[in-house]
Predict the structure.
Amino acid sequence: QKEVEQDPGPLSVPEGAIVSLNCTYSNSAFQYFMWYRQYSRKGPELLMYTYSSGNKEDGRFTAQVDKSSKYISLFIRDSQPSDSATYLCAMSRSGGYNKLIFGAGTRLAVHP
Amino acid sequence: DAGITQSPRHKVTETGTPVTLRCHQTENHRYMYWYRQDPGHGLRLIHYSYGVKDTDKGEVSDGYSVSRSKTEDFLLTLESATSSQTSVYFCAISQDADGYTFGSGTRLTVV
């Protein structure tokens, strides 16, 4: 069983929809949680960064962490065609040396 | 991808030949990583470095070696390339508890 599970999709939504992306994990030692966005044939770029539990909001994006359920989510409000990409969750045990464990990524397509 | 450069961007090589991929950073970050990305597997760590000449294995290190003789350069070598090493290779850098910054990737095909 993988340490981090993520539904690969693809997920197709109309423009303006609210998108929910999720990951589950098995290791309770994870403390740092991140979401990366990867456009086709590009490297992943950091989108959201959260420490421990709680919510974090940045514009149209909200990241949630529920450590009791070992479940993290990324919500995208008012989705745009430019949001079409693969979204990868990632997490690590501690700061300092930061070896990230990645989910497989969810491919999202937002159509006009 | 400012501050981190991977070369080459694309490479086709024959089975059994050695291949070296280069990652160069201008951020003076301490940590550097090599990942491979394959459909259905996401990003898997090959090797990482926590300083000059300090490297360690990741989860898929068999068939790969690395070297870091300068802070800014991290080399990944496939000693004898196999078709199973056909993949997209990403270098990443980080400093302390920051998230990673990734390069643009190297698309390697072993024929």
Chain A touches chain B through 25 residues (CB under 8 Å). The two ends of chain A are 37 Å apart (CA to CA).
